[in-house]
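Retry 2 of 3 after timeout on previous attempt. Resubmitting structure tokens to design endpoint.
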């Protein structure tokens, strides 16, 4: 199943996680504005933004730097990543990954890919005003992109960053590769792809074979490496477990009810995924508040950039919208001028 998912790592953090996927055999591409960062990765397909020496946490600067080479970069990516399902991995806090995430996700969606964004949320409390500002702006953009699949929000307050990287890759890889069966039918790869195609936020949990009761599975969803679930109701819930008597409806009820559930039985381990959740509004606003607080303390009004209203938080659609293609250069121009 691994061959059905392509991986794109943007910036340093995105590339670190992408590299773990490559070591498991996934088709992987790395994009960075910093040649030093690319050199530090042992990967096959590395794409440098021509002429750039890093973006120094400036999201707009990376768009300007990529203006001439973005078309070439996406062309190369299309040649390497032939899969329908593409994980686009980046940290929202830096310049390169955060800035490139929006045009990359929009472009790939426009050419018909099912994008699965994997967005790292920095530890707001222990980050600079600039990182908080970037994170908020990247989240606002991410929530407004039409036609995306499920979005993973990795929460850097949940542990050490390398622990989070390893944990995410391990959980995702298990979800994709685990063999299972059930009296109700196998929880097959098309159902797993359906869960991953659902717009909104997705969370996962992985437990050892001996921990497979409904409360333990629910607990794993609430205490994983992902941004905490703030609003009830998911759309899809999938569980693969050794517990043949598991009542999946009790997990669904605890999540406020789901549109559909999938259950598979495996002797190996327990893995759970819930998708179609709302974006965590309070968590995202924390970045804005932290930024504004720091700016107030710095007491320099011209430091404040325009913040777009939180419109996209209001509604979520569960059907991927059709989008019309734009050429790569116009896409960057639109973002710079918009
Ligand atoms: N989970 C996780 N977070 C990371 C990792 N590396 C950096 N971060 C976090 O991501 C933020 C910085 O993002 P980077 O990916 O380094 O930035 P970049 O995309 O390379 O952008 P520039 O260097 O500014 O051009 C910081 O808040 C870090 O704490 C990583 O490997 N894993
Ligand atoms: Mg960097």
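Retry 2 succeeded. Sequence:
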């Amino acid at each position: 199943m691994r061959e059905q998912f392509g991986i794109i790592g943007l910036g340093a953090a995105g590339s670190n996680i992408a590299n773990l996927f490559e070591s498991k055999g996934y088709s992987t591409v790395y994009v960075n504005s910093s040649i030093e960062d690319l050199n530090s990765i042992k990967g096959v397909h590395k794409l440098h933004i021509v002429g750039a020496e890093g973006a120094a946490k400036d999201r707009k600067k990376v768009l300007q730097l990529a203006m001439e080479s973005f078309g070439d970069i996406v062309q190369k990516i299309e040649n390497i990543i032939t899969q329908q399902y593409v994980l686009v991995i980046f940290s929202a806090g830096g310049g390169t990954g955060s800035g490139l995430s929006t045009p990359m996700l929009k472009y790939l969606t426009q050419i018909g890919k099912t994008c699965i964004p994997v967005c790292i949320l920095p530890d707001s409390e222990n980050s600079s005003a600039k990182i908080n500002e970037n994170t908020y702006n990247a989240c606002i953009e991410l929530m407004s992109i039409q036609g995306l699949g499920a979005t993973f929000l990795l929460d850097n307050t949940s542990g050490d960053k390398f622990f989070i990287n390893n944990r995410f890759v391990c959980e995702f890889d298990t979800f994709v590769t685990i063999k299972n069966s059930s009296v109700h039918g196998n929880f097959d790869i098309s159902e797993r792809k359906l869960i991953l195609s659902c717009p909104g936020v997705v969370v996962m949990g992985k437990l050892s074979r001996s921990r497979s009761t409904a409360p333990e599975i629910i607990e794993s969803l609430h205490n994983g490496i992902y941004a905490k679930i703030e609003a009830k109701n998911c759309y899809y819930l999938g569980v693969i477990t050794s517990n043949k008597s598991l009542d999946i409806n009790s997990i669904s009820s605890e999540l406020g009810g789901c549109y559909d559930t999938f259950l598979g039985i495996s002797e190996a381990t327990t893995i759970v995924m819930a998708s179609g959740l709302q974006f965590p509004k309070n968590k995202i606003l924390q970045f804005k508040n932290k930024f504004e607080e720091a700016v107030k303390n710095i007491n320099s009004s011209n430091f404040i950039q325009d913040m777009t209203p939180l419109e996209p938080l209001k509604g979520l659609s569960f059907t991927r919208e059709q989008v019309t293609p734009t050429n790569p250069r116009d896409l960057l121009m639109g973002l710079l001028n918009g």
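Attempt log closed. The longest strand covers residues 114-121.
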